[in-house]
Amino acid sequence: MAKDLSPKNILVTGGCGFIGSNFVHYVVKNHPETHVTVLDALTYAGNIENIAGLPEDRVEFVHGNICDADLLDKIVPGHDAIVHYAAESHNDNSIADPEPFLRTNVEGTYRLLEAARKYDVRYHHISTDEVYGDLALDDPARFTEETPYHPSSPYSSTKAASDLLVRAWVRTFGVQATISNCSNNYGPYQHVEKFIPRQITNILTGVRPKLYGDGLNVRDWIHTDDHSSAVWTILTRGRIGETYLIGADGERNNLTVLRDILEMMGKDPDDFDWVKDRPGHDRRYAIDSTKLRTELGWTPEHTDFREGLEHTIRWYEENRAWWEPVKAKTEARYKAQGQ
Ligand code: NAD
Ligand code: DAU
């Protein structure tokens, strides 16, 4: 049964990454009664700057790895919830080298579940719609909580594995856990390896944007602030053992998104390169978030995608010092892959 939680002290893993740091900002802004401990290994994708300037009495940073059981023994007790964002998150990287994905996404989740079990701490698991595989472009269906798992990439298969671990720990050990599977996020602090920031920062550095395959793959975009409000809703009011899908009805193909970016940045709509497709590239994701909306009353606020995209472009224009140090290295990696 649902037991509402009023968390006073939460542990956010991956709180220096894109979505995790936006969640930390969201909690600081909207829930003054809640203290946050961020646990982050600061991999290539983590940046301490993402949580810089937040009040020290509200946010504590611990530099460490979620696979480190001794560290978890030290820091988990005293928290009333773990919100688990930390992951290796990029599909292309998982194709080039799957191993870190198995370590962090599978073993790391196992370690956190064991800590949640040992110290009887509520656990919320952040996952992805990619666990469901993909849909055809002309399929009227969308993913629901009942859709069978059918992941395509090393990344999504490790996320699927981690979801299944959570379900087993709920059923077998009675861990008080919930799971959410969200669609593609956009917004500030997203690493320049990902589609939208890559194209914006390419244009800002005089590089032509790169589109995979035929450009018709569809992603279901949601602003990261809406993801944060949904996670808070599930953490505080979700039913234990349940899965909730998070989405904001934002289906768009990649070509349309890229042309929006080009237009908003004053470029010609054809000023981009077609590049080699991603192996196993999922065709379309689409989320039906009826359960979350009807059962818990959540609704997204940022439903104007073009407005959200404009803000995101401005953010990258105004925060060059945040992304410039990693841009050349990221593009060199893509170039080596022919993308
Ligand atoms: P990200 O790559 O931007 O950030 C990941 C963070 O985790 C980084 O700060 C990194 O340093 C940290 N981390 C990695 N390995 C770690 C380890 N072993 N121990 C401790 N910290 C570690 O990822 P993101 O895009 O913000 O995604 C966050 C979560 O949301 C992931 O679980 C991802 O699967 C899920 N998700 C992402 C999206 C999306 O559109 N990006 C959509 C749905 C779900
Ligand atoms: O659906 C949720 C998932 O969304 C999350 O689980 C992942 O962590 C997150 O990275 C994201 O996965 P995608 O693979 O959909 O995101 P990415 O930004 O890598 O790519 C989005 C789409 O754009 C995809 O169809 C591939 C395409 N693409 C990507 C890049 C980097 C391009 O056409 N050109 C590019 O340069």
CATH topology of the domain at 9-191 and 221-251 and 284-306: Rossmann fold
The assigned structural class equals: alpha/beta
CATH architectural label of the domain at 9-191 and 221-251 and 284-306: 3-Layer(aba) Sandwich
What is the tally of beta strands?
A: 13
Individual helix count: 11
Write down the Rg: 19 Å
Report the uncertain regions: none
Inertia-based shape:
globular
The average pLDDT value, as a whole number, equals 98
- Proportion of residues in helical segments: 40-55%
Q: How are the strands of the largest sheet arranged?
A: 3-2-1-4-5-6-11
The ordered string of helix (H) and strand (E) elements is EHEEHEHHEHEEHEEEHEEHEHHH
Strand-residue proportion: 15-25%
The CATH class of the domain at 9-191 and 221-251 and 284-306 turns out to be Alpha Beta
The major sheet is characterized as:
7 strands, parallel
User: Which hetero compounds are present in the coordinates?
Assistant: nicotinamide-adenine-dinucleotide, 2'deoxy-thymidine-5'-diphospho-alpha-D-glucose
Written account of the structure:
By secondary structure, the protein is of the alpha/beta class. The protein has a domain at 9-191 and 221-251 and 284-306: 3-Layer(aba) Sandwich (Rossmann fold). 41% of the residues lie in helices and 16% in strands. The chain has a seven-stranded parallel β-sheet with strand order 3-2-1-4-5-6-11, with helices on both faces. The chain is globular. The site of 2'deoxy-thymidine-5'-diphospho-alpha-D-glucose has 19 residues, from helix 6 and strand 8. This is dTDP-glucose 4,6-dehydratase. It comes from Bifidobacterium pullorum subsp. saeculare DSM 6531 = LMG 14934. It is an enzyme of class 4 (lyase).
